[in-house]
Write the structure tokens for this entry.
Amino acid sequence: MNNNGSDARMLTRTLFRLLPIQVLLAAVGAVNGIVSSYFAANFVGIDAMSAVGLYSPLNMLLQAIGTMLLGGSVILCGKYMGQNRQDRLQNAFSLDLLLSLLISGVFTALFVLLSLLDATSFLTKDAAVRPIFNRYLLGQAIGVLPMVLGNQLAAFLSLENKGGRTIAATVAYIVVNLLLNYLFVQVLSMEAFGLALASSLGLWVFFGVQAQHFLTGRSHFHAAFTGLDWKESGELIKTGLPGAVGSGYQTGRGLILNWLMSAFVGSVGISAFATANNLLGIIWSIPTGMLAVSRMMISVSVGEEDRQTLTDVMRVMLFRFVPLMCAVAFGIMLCAQPLTRIFYRDPTEPVYWMTVWGLRLLPLCMPLAVICAHFVCYGQVSGKQGLVHLISLLDGIVCVCAFAALLIRSLGMNAVYAANVINGAVMPLVLVAYAWIKGKRFPRSMDELMVVPPDFGVSEDERLDLTVRSIEEVVDVSRQIQQFCLERGVDPRRALLAGLSMEEMAGNIVEHGFGKDGRKHAVDVRVVHKNDDVILRIKDDCVPFDPSERQKLAEGEDVTKNIGIRMVFGIAEEVRYQNILGLNVLTIWI
């Protein structure tokens, strides 16, 4: 039995179990970029690649708004799941879908008008490129709605532990996108419009596969567009806005960098930058997926006021996620030339070496970006808006654009790549400085680096954390919990009932949950005594099991059956069960 850092191993397993699904989700847009880049470079021309690059800032703006809705809704729903507030959960879900639908309609109409009226001169004045870009933008307009809604649904599927459907939707999208690009671009010669149309139709497939789950009635989330509490839409936007500000700043950054490259390098620089970014988009899906799973766990932890799990998430990021990204980045840097040859085969062309150096330098940003993104997410969830806006402003636009402007006359295209790397190195220093100023000393622990408020959650002397890994250890649970309660001044009767309840439920999990899937499991037990309340929480990663459902089924059975569950429900003031991110969470009030 372990009573130190009880959640760490289970938390790590849970985060890495959820990670592949979130990486696949993040890779959807990246796959679109790579496929579009390949067909544009090989079957349309470099001007088509410029069109792809010019669309990037608009896509960032659209993603910023989608991220705002996604971040706000996931954070609110995570908190409500932690608090077991089902009515608020469904309201936040419904508002998210409705706002996503309305905003998608606005952007679709805007893109259509810009393309048909040739009103895109603010993005490019190149007479050869603008007509190609207009046709590309028109095709992209068709996919705005399924892209925004599809990303929202994927996050809620993860909260329900239904990531398999997202995997199926992603695979379907990749296949459809590839086949339609071959048909529209290579066979029918639809050029830029075909590039965008293939992606848009693939996104409709991606959205449809996921939406089917929510239409069957089996989903935990139910959309209801009548009787909504519209006041919460303000809270949703307010919560999600700080996390989306970074993407909004990146829209401005993209416009500024495109101008710098056009002025000092030429359209070939935009093509090389777009190619490198689209190829690295697959790799960027890894840190994006890391952030997505951490955001869910951070949100739930804040809702539960679980200080230990909250800081453990950041430790997993620092000691697991960052080293993994270092290894991935190093591999990409070694393969820079072979990867470039997928798109450009002639080393004598300037675009070739510009792309190679992009693949050699830009990966250096990735491990550092993991750190920055996680702290922005934590600041967003915990209400540290000043930190979020500071990091988003510096990381999103100021540092990259300033360093690029200073260096581009002497380094040319490599100045844009170097600016991104320098920016990545500056951000962790800003985080340390922020914690130093707030804490009035150099941060010496994860709590101090995160600037976690002293009154957040329960103190160490108000809680007891245990980890149970075998049936033999269960016997000692009752004694330790009873002793903890007595030392805290709880009356002997409630102390005894708390020990018996936890022993029964933990023992039931070990006996019936362990060994069913051939994996190693543990039961994390937490006892909290605060304000005269005794709260028992059991968390495990076994197969889903709701004891309240078992108790209801047992009501008409022989009284000698399921006696343990009957006893717990009989002596507890309240029992709540939830399955959060694939974890069984049982909370008992004594």
